[in-house]
Amino acid sequence: MARYVLKFGGSSVADAAKLYAAARKLAAEHRAGHEVIGVLSAQGGTTDALLAKAREIDPDCCGRELDALLSTGEICSVSLCALALRRLGVPAVSLCGWQAGLVTESVHGGARVLRLEGGRIERELRANNIVLVAGFQGIDDAGDITTLGRGGSDTTAVALSAFLHADRCRIYTDVDGVYNKDPRRYPDAVKYDTISYDEMLTLARSGARVLHDRCVELAKRYGVEIEVLSSFRPLPGTVVRR
After folding, report:
1. Which of 159, 166, 95 is nearest to 131 (CA)?
2. What b/e readout covers 78-102, taking b as 16+ CB neighbours within 10 angstroms?
3. 3 has which bridge partners?
4. Fewest CB atoms within 10 A around its CB: which of 140, 164, 177, 190?
5. How deeply is 234 buried, as exposed, middle or buried, from its count of CB atoms within 10 A (0-12, 13-18, 19+)?
6. How many CB atoms lie within 10 A of CB 25?
7. Contact call for residues 80 and 94 (beta carbons, < 8 A)
């Protein structure tokens, strides 16, 4: 039995149809006999909308309360996906960051992941559930909700892959892999079949938006291979590895 972590970005779960498409991908791996952990971002536009609401109250908002507010976007996504999976006849449970036991440093708006505690994910996998973990968030040692900053859901997926010794980490997004430049702007962009962590870090730090550098740094530290795939087209993706 293999263990897979599948992450879906905001554009991949932006509405009911796309969320059901993500649920079917998760369900297919579960029905094939694999242990499945799904990591979801907030639905497209949700985080910006929550931030706008906060700024209506306090234009200078930041810190603990903003993190608590922003974390609700991902919690909504995993709850909805769990409902979709149950509708498809597949057992699933949704967990927010503190329920999953993802412990971070005590920094708001850009915390780094430290460890995984509690064993909740392992217990749910043993109960034959697909486990859906809210991306972008964790909890610090004081018990406060933290968020992981830009690309935080990718970081969640890589961290869980490392701590849970997953066999595969797939990042589903709106492009079908990693290119040498933005394929949406440059028709002559070339896709990589494989790319090293260091090459990916260089691209990320020069503005490529497929993976954030913090996510790649974590993957490099723990040796997690990342497969970047399109949510919408069944094409080969790009593998990021040593």
Report:
1. 95
2. bebbbebbeeeebebbbbbbbbbbb
3. 35
4. 190
5. exposed
6. 18
7. no
Contacts with 117 (C-beta within 8 Å, 6 or more apart), sequence order: 101, 103
What are the pLDDT digits (tens) for 176-213? 899 988 887 888 989 999 999 999 999 888 877 789 89
pLDDT tens for 10-19 read: 999 999 999 9
Burial of residue 17 (CB within 10 Å: 0-12, 13-18, 19+) is exposed
